[in-house]
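Side project, low priority. Logging it here so it doesn't get lost.
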Amino acid sequence: YITTIRNGTPSIVPADRHIHHNFFIGNYNSQENIDTDDGSCYYQTENNFFAMSANGLKSDFGGHDHHWMGNILAYTGGCFGAPLPFRYFHGYNDAFYNNTCVAYGSGYGAGVYTSDCFLGPSWNVSNNRLYTVNGTTQICGKNWTEWFSANTTRDKGSTISKWPKDEILVAWAQSLLNFTVD
């Protein structure tokens, strides 16, 4: 189909879809809270709280133009899909920035946070806050400090710490979604 909703000119490119200010719980071994693959594209996913899923941002099998910003991912296996060099995951024009990711385990093949390791130049990964059980992780076979001190990454401003207490995580969710808990 041809539409003009993106910018007023005829195009097959749709307007961005916005997913914002939601509280998601991925139970029963959910893969992702938002399953975007198989060519899905043009999503702006912002200011959501995601709890309990295997991954955060997913953009494989032709998915592209997914932007995740300002989200909180609580107790996830990985912040975003691992773009290993032998996989089908490319995520052209994707972005993962200004997110808070509380991750468990060691991720699926590439770690819980892969920074921009193996990512093409159209990706933006930056200014994220990663929390792991012990405050460490591996990126491209290097520990966090080695990866960022090598000055070869475009991922600027991201930090790593140990898991926050549950009360702090709840306070972040309350602030993000503007609700109170009695």
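Brief comment: The first strand starts at residue 17 and ends at 20.
Revisit when time allows.
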